[in-house]
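Quick check before the chapter quiz. The format below is the same one you will see on the exam, so make sure you can read both the input and the output lines.
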Amino acid sequence: MSEFNVNVEVSARHVHLSQEDIEKLFGKGYELKVKKDIAGGFVAEERVTLTGPKRTLERVAILGPARKETQIELASTDARNLGVNPPIRLSGHLEGTPGIKITAENGNSVEPDHGCIIAQRHLHLSPATAEKYGVTGDKPVKISIDTGMNRSLVFCDVAVRVGGDSDVVHLDTDEGNAACTGKSCTGICIAE
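Here is the expected output.
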């Protein structure tokens, strides 16, 4: 068994848009404006509203660049509030998922028939770290988080994605709140 520290980040609700949907929402040839660079892409200046059968969520972030398919990532609480029932999936695994209405601030909207998921918690590992600790992408790990606030948790079934140059686990807002993670947090990866 290997144990090592990893950074913990909380990923709030957001959408990834296809270029086709970007153009339907914002106009032909439109390119999203970069507000902030993040690993693997950027947070766009533009925001959208998500409308489900029960409620709407306003000012939802868009992450760029454009993707092959539009994907909407929610926490379980967001999904319940909207009235949708998306499955827990890794990013890009969209088959059999529900759609949702997406509206830009200019009033233009799209309603993909699929793409709504609750993102499975996952760990990004650099190839060097993965090799050092014998971790592969084919077996989930556990992440232990203790922020000293009497809310220590162990998250099981954390998917592993090897690649890139950082070692960071991504949780959704429900998971982050449950562990009282705050802005800066580390956890212990437990790989068997």
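If your answer matched, good. Helices lie at 19-26, 76-82, 127-133, 173-178.
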